[in-house]
Design goal:
There is one protein chain. The protein is of the alpha/beta class. It is 31% helix and 20% strand. Strands 1, 2, 3, 4, 5, 6, 7, 8 and 9 form a nine-stranded mixed β-sheet that branches. Strand 1, helix 1 and strand 2 form a beta-alpha-beta unit. The longest helix has 14 residues. The radius of gyration is 18 Å and the shape is globular. The protein starts with a strand and ends in a 5-residue tail after the last helix.
Length: 251
C-alpha cells in the first residue's frame, strides 16, 4: 500500500515557542523528524506548515514543504489539506516533535490498515508499566476489543481496577498508553476533517474520540516502547544529550 507521511509543524507553541527551528544539534528539530520519516517505505514525506520561517528551514535542508492555511484548528486539519493533493491510499500523520521516532514504527501503521480493511484509521500504543503512569492524566489510555480495535480513549485510569491493584506485568496488553501517531485512509481523512468536534472529544480533549463517535473503528497496534517526543525545553535538553551520545561526531 502506497503511503505518504505528512509532518504538521507550527511556529507557535505555548510550552516551547519556535520548537521546529531549535538547532543545538546542528540540525533543526523538524529536520531530525523529516530524516527519520525518509528512512521509511513512504512514497512521499512532506512538512505541512503555515509559517514561512519553517518553510525556509525545510527548503534549506532540501526537504519538501507545503504551505497551508493559517486558520486550521488542529494538525489533522493541516494534514488533510495537504492530503487532498496527494495520490496515495494512506496518509500517516507524524508530529514534528518526534526526532527519535523509529522508522519501523511508522511503517507498521499502513500495515495495520492493510490487515484490517474495515478500519479507516490506525494508531499505536505501548504497555503501561507503572501506577503513576496509569493515573497520570497526561498519559492517554486506550482499551481494545478482541480484534485490536479501540473501544475508548481516556485521560482517566483505563481500564479501572475495582478490586485490588493493576497488574501491569501480567496484563501488558490490557493497560496501554496511546501514542499520538495516526494512519488514515485518505478518503476518510478528508471526510473526518469536515466533521465538527463531538461532545466526548471536547470533554476529554482527545480528537480521536470523534472517530469513535462516528461509529468508525480505529485499529490499535502495540509496540514495546515509544520514543519520547519534545514538548518542553527539558524534553529538548534530554534529546540533545541523547543525540550527542548516539552521534558524537555529528553533534
Amino acid at each position: 500500500m502506497q503511503f505518504a507521511i505528512v509532518i504538521p509543524a507550527r511556529y507557535g507553541s505555548s510550552r516551547l515557542p519556535a520548537k521546529p527551528l531549535l538547532k543545538e544539534t546542528g540540525k533543526y528539530l523538524v529536520q531530525h523528524v523529516y530524516e527519520q520519516a525518509c528512512r521509511t517505505k513512504a512514497k512521499e514525506v512532506i512538512v505541512a506548515t503555515d509559517d514561512e520561517r519553517i518553510a525556509h528551514a525545510v527548503k534549506e535542508f532540501d526537504g519538501r514543504v507545503a504551505i497551508t492555511r493559517a486558520d486550521h484548528a488542529s494538525g489533522t486539519d493541516r494534514v488533510a489539506e495537504v492530503a487532498a493533493g496527494l495520490d496515495v491510499e494512506i496518509i500517516v500523520n507524524l508530529q514534528g516533535d518526534e526526532p527519535l521516532i523509529d522508522p519501523a514504527v511508522l511503517d507498521l501503521l499502513p500495515q495495520l490498515l492493510q490487515k484490517d480493511q474495515s478500519s479507516p484509521m490506525a494508531t499505536l500504543a505501548v504497555p503501561i508499566t507503572s501506577e503513576e503512569q496509569w493515573r497520570d492524566p497526561n498519559c492517554v489510555k486506550v482499551v481494545r476489543d478482541s480484534l485490536g480495535r479501540a473501544l475508548y480513549f481516556s485521560r482517566s485510569p483505563l481500564p479501572f481496577v475495582r478490586d485490588g491493584q493493576p497488574d501491569f506485568a501480567t496484563n501488558a496488553e490490557m493497560f496501554l498508553q496511546h501514542i499520538g501517531l495516526y494512519a488514515y485512509r485518505r478518503s476518510f481523512l478528508l471526510h473526518l476533517a469536515k466533521q465538527p468536534p463531538c461532545a466526548l472529544e471536547q470533554i476529554e480533549k482527545l480528537e480521536q474520540l470523534r472517530v469513535l463517535a462516528m461509529s468508525r473503528s480505529i485499529q490499535v497496534g502495540v509496540v514495546p516502547h515509544a520514543a519520547r517526543g519534545v514538548d518542553t525545553s527539558e524534553d529538548y535538553r534530554r534529546f540533545v544529550e541523547t543525540y550527542r551520545k548516539l552521534f558524537p561526531a555529528a553533534a
